[in-house]
Amino acid sequence: MSQLRKMFVENWDEWVNALHEDLGRHKAMCVFGDLNGVLKAVDTLLDKLDEWTAKRPVPTQLELFPGKAWQQVEPKGVVLNIAPWNFPVELIAHPLAYILAAGNCCVLKPSEVSKHVEGVFSKLVPRYLDPEAVACVTGGVATATALLKEQWDHIMYTGNGAVGKVVMSAAAKHLTPVTLELGGKSPCVVDKNCNLALAAKRILNGKTFNCGQICLAPDYVLLHKSHEAAFFEELKKELAQFYPKGQQQDESYARIINENHFKRLKGLLADHGGEEVIGGLSQCSEKDRPFVTTVVKNPSLSSKLMQEEVFGPILPVVVVNDIEEAIEIINARDKPLGLYVFSNNQSTVDSVLTRCPSGGVTINDFLFHIVVDDLPFGGVGPSGIGVTHGRAGFDEFCHLRSVLHRGNTSIDLLGSARYPPFDESKYKLLTKMTLHAPKVKAVLGVVAKVGLPLVMGAALYHFW
């Protein structure tokens, strides 16, 4: 852990510069989006590792007396860690910290799309980390395909669902467990009872952070009709405050990673069937790829814009009549990675939470549920399998081995009932114990309080 920390602290400027070169981010965004999360994870593990790796005692039933049980934390083995390009440091190094803390070896596959960060990883990993424990493999699709043909003890993949299916299919051939951090269309509900100015500010922050290239960005907004005019005005006001020079010139605004993704976003704006109330293609320059924030009011629900994950600074806004309509639209799509609700009405919040499944939820903000140290982060269904972050993230890369240690004694509270030969009396005893399990449990509970001899005599008299 300490060496992993050194790898970032001692080469801070190099990491920041690589992130800037790949994604056009301001230095502050490089720290906030990638490096802060990595060091926070490492520091948490350094603080909690002794506690998390210790034996975990488990209560045993009285019928197993004398005996004790526990979970023993063990590494899984060799883990393949495949990372994406949008947060190319955080989304490979954060899982790496948990993988190594659990005692595993790891093969890293950084994204070739974020080539500057990939280069830093390939240079620094062998310099700082034990080559017998960690290896960094570079390359494109062919390299990833070759890696997936090998047998691993666990595979960690972060990226889109299409590749996630490929990873899971390859893992299935060896019955390899997987952690898939995917994405999808994370909805954002703006209720009639909310702080509209705050909602607009934070939604815009989510859509412009890293130029919208984040799996947990608010993918589309379901806006109550009472806010239809005011919401767009608030967005325009906040946009001017965020980027006073305009997004094409402002250094605080990141860039689309490459030309292919720029063209993909242009394709989402074709035939969306709605009204572009902010931004638009005419304001987007392919030179340096500053795709300006574009807000589309009431796009067709069957359009590509409303069917595919946006993963960029395009914000579809669907005006709805009530919360029921919003819930219906959400549940017509796959279960999302994130769900956001802006509301001061607890019954509205509870209704959305109860009826709309998702990987995680933030209320009156976006994304920040993943910042809570002890909250597991992960998807559900098509948005992901397994979790990272906190103790649950540590456990994800462990084998929690179950152990029962019986005393080396002839004492056996089940008596001869467990052993052959079986007869009618044993059948009746076991039947009574099974059918009256709550009573048995209550009796055994009293045993622990008032002493074994007295209660065992009463229990045997009752059942015989």
Describe the structure in your own words.
The chain is an alpha/beta fold and 464 residues long. The protein has 3 domains: 2-182 and 389-401, 3-Layer(aba) Sandwich (Aldehyde Dehydrogenase, Chain A, domain 1); 187-376, Aldehyde Dehydrogenase, Chain A, domain 2 (3-Layer(aba) Sandwich); 412-463, no CATH class. It is built from 17 helices and 16 strands. It has a 7-stranded mixed beta sheet with strand order 10-11-12-9-8-13-14, with helices on both faces. Strands 5-4-3-6-7-15 form a 6-stranded mixed beta sheet, sandwiched between helices. Strands 1-2-16 form a 3-stranded antiparallel beta sheet. Helix 13 (346-355) links the parallel strand 13 and strand 14. The radius of gyration is 27 Å and the shape is globular. The N and C termini lie far apart (59 Å). 38% of the residues are buried.
